[in-house]
Design goal:
It is a single chain. With 180 residues, the chain is mainly beta. Helices cover 6% and strands 48% of the residues. It has two helices and 14 strands, in the order ββββββαββαββββββ. Strand 11 and strand 12 form a beta hairpin. The longest helix is centred in the middle third of the chain and has 7 residues. It is elongated. The two termini are 21 Å apart.
Length: 180
Amino acid sequence: MRTGNPGINRPESEGFVSIGYITGTHGIKGDVKVLPLSDMPGRFDSLSRVYVFTKKGIKREYLIHGIKEVKGRIILSFLPPVSVSESEDLVGGYIKVPEDEVPELSEDTYYHFEIIGMEVFSEDGTYLGKIEDIFSTGSNDVYVVKDAEKELLIPAVHYVVKNVDVAENRMVVALIEGLL
C-alpha cells in the first residue's frame, strides 16, 4: 500500500492538487522558490502552466518560463514575467495543477487527495471514521482516522488496509491487536 504525495496536509481547492508551496522569492526578476510537495522526481519538468492559490485565496494561472533546482527547492519563472512585488505576494501560496493532469499511479498506489476524506470501515462493517490526515513514518504512511469520539492511527500496510475503493470513497481495514 503506497500513497503518492502531491499535497499531503495542504489545503486543496476543488478540482486542483497541490504540488508545491512557495517559500520565498528568488533574485530580482520575480522568480519564486518552491518546496515540492510531490514525491515524483521531475514532477515540475513537464509542466507548461500552473495555478497559484495565494494565502489570500486568490487563484492565478501562470505559464512556466523556466524551472531549475537549487538545494532541494525548485525555482520557477513565469510568463509573462512577474514583478518582484507580485512574486512577494505569492509567497505562502500553493502551486496547483488540475486533478485530471495528475499522472496515473500503479495498482494499489493512491494519491493523498484520493485518500483524505475517505470513510473507513472494519472488516465486519463497523464505521470507524473518516481519514482526516496522512503522515509518513519513513517506512509507511499512517492514516489519521477520526469520528465524533475518537482518533485512530491506521498504518498504510497491506495486512491492515484490506480494500480501497476510490470511486465509493471507502476503505476497509483489519483491526489488528493494539490498533484500537
